[in-house]
Structures are given as structure tokens and as C-alpha cells.
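Milestone M4 deliverable, item 7.
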Amino acid sequence: MNKKNLIIVLIFILLGSSLNAQVNTSSPYSRYGIGDIENEVLGRGLGMGGISTGLRLPLEINTINPASYSALPNKVFLFQVGVKSKRIDYSTSSDMVTNYDFSLSSINMAFSLKKYWAMSIGISPLSSIGYQISTEDSVFLDDYKQDYDNNYIGEGGLSKLYWGNSFAYKGLSLGINASYVFGSLSKRFESILRDEEYNSFLIYTEDNKTKGLHLRYGIQYNDSILKKYSFTLGAFYENKTDFNIDMFRYLSRTIVRGADITITDTLYNDTVSQGKIEMPMAYGLGFSFLTKKLIIGADYKVSNWEDVLLFNEKSSYLTNSSSFAAGVEYTHNYMSKKYFETVNFRLGAYINNTYITINGSQIKNNGITFGIGLPTKIGTKINIGFDIGQRGTVETGLIKENYYLINLNFNFSDTWFIRRKFF
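Output delivered:
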């Protein structure tokens, strides 16, 4: 490994340690389940509607289908890092607010060990929680009325550190990702009662530290048509998995009367409690079709959330999720000496029925994408993807999110184990 690759590995370690510490969302929908499920699609696919299961490209890392790693040429090393910036307009039937999020989205490496064997290592967020909701409430007893201010606060999320392997024989490739999932899901509820004679604060805190192992299996079959066009059929599968959690729950009440009297009472304190979170059985199918100028593909994915337990209980707001994505990429001439003709242009769309149902309505998440791939003379590729979408609705008292997302992905490639000669 040369010095440049060693520096890349050190950056990978340093950035990976910060990835788990960030909050990647500010959505009130992240209050439910394990939070917002993060998009695991990398670079190229982000501009093509998020397709990935059937993509098999030689200089791209595709973690959705681990069978794709074996497309990497022999003795080639890849390193990619992605960041994203998001603007979200939240709307209700009577109001609208805007928020901005920025986060590191993924860090990945991939390298070939043999002509038939390639490996990938990386870290990325699996889910994110980040919200702060304030409401007002009142209690009536005959002629007496008492007003409350309620605050709901959540932060944290789950990350996964994976190790993937892929093996190829002729047109068939098999792969597996073994992931260590870890993180903290924290929620806090505050109810504040304000009276002429005293103030009362009721505070409930829940912190769930999660860890566990997770497997994803992938398969791809690649062949040609008339020796001119290439196509790939792909699929992945994840079995239902249990994650262990250490649950900390604390409930306290504080009464403040005047400037001198403060009374605090611990109503509940469970410092050591064991539980589990289940991840659903999931699968995906996809294909891609390649010509000299075009890449066309589509994906379909399903996750069975209705059968899982969250914090040892079944949740009435969880439902089975599904998504469909399709996209296309156009490049005028990969081998041209004119730079503009080697640029990739991408377009796509997706339809996502999320895993959350509120007030009898399953939350939908639909959008369109477009993007470009910019090659460089030093072997680095810069992928820029744009995503314009909508999640939720203002009907039945819900919140609609209109979002505008920019994904920036840097893909570095180099050759390993080549002895340099100087003359």
C-alpha cells in the first residue's frame, strides 16, 4: 500500500468515528420507530432514482447488493466519501417552517484480492432521530382550567460498520455484507404546568443503546446480448434480526413554589433494563441494461415491518414498506478527448411507501432525481445528485415535507501492488 492509500485509510477511520455522532435529520416523522431510515445508495445511483440492486459497474461501490463488489478490476482500490445537504419545508394546514440539515452520508473502501474475489469495508448511518415538537394542552375540572406546555425531543440514531465479500464465477456473482449495528436512540418528554402559586415540571427520559449483527445476501447475473449490450439481474435478501438494547428510563417531577421552595421527586428510575429491537425481513430485485451510451435500470424493494418488535412491543403505527425506483444515465463518449462528452448525465424517479402509518394514513415519500458525474485527470470521479421530493400530507392533521437534497460523492481509484519504475 502506498502513502496515498495509507492516508485514505486514516481519513476513513477518523471520519468514521464522527459519523455516528451526528444528527442527520430534523423531521418530526423521525419520532416513530427507529427514526428516519437512511438512504444507503451511493454516488452514481443517487442521480438515477436510487437504483442499485441490479447495478454492476467496475469503478463504483454499491453496498446495496454486495454481489457487485466482484465487478472491481483486479488490483484496483476504491475509496469514496459522501456528504449531503438538505432543505426541508414543513407544512401544516395553517403554518410552514423551513429547516436545513447537513451531514456526512457514507465512507467506503473496496479492493480486489483475486480476479474472482473482492472486498468492501465501510460505515454509514442506518437511521436518524432528530426532532423538537411543542404543543399546548389544557385540563378542565368544573370551573377550573389548567394549562400545560408539552415538549417532545428526540436525537440519535443507528449506524452500521460493514465488511463485505463478493465472489464471481463466469457471469454469476454472490456476495454478503456482515454489519455491526450500534447507536443510541434518545427521547425526552417535558410537561410544564404553570400556576399562579407554583410551577410543576414533569420530565420523562428514555435512552436506548443498541448493538447487534446484521447480514445481507446478494446475487447478480451478468451477460451480454449480441455481444454488444450488457445486462445485469440482481437481488438481495435480509433475514429478520434481533438487536440487543440497554434501556434507561427516568421519570421525575419538580415543583417550584416562589424563589425558595423546590421539591424534586423521582417517580421512576430503571437504570438497567434489557430489551430488543427487531429489524424486518427485507428483499429487493433489480436490473440494469448497458449500451455504449446508456445505462437504464429499475429497482423494487420490500420490508416487512408489521411483524417486528420495537423495545419489546409491537407498534400499531408500523406497516410493511415498499419502494420502486427507475433511472437512466447518458454519456456521449467515454473515450472522447473532449471533456464535456465524457460527463455522465442522470435522471430518475422513485415511489416509496414508508414503514409508518399515522391516523390511518401510510406516509408516502415520492420524488425525482437528476445528477452528473464529473471525471478528473487524477482518477477521481465527482458525482453530484439532486433530489426533489415530498413526504407526508397535511390531511388528517399530519405534516407535509417538501425537501430539496444535494448529494456530493467523491470516488477515488488507484492501483495496488504495482511496482513503480523510475528512469
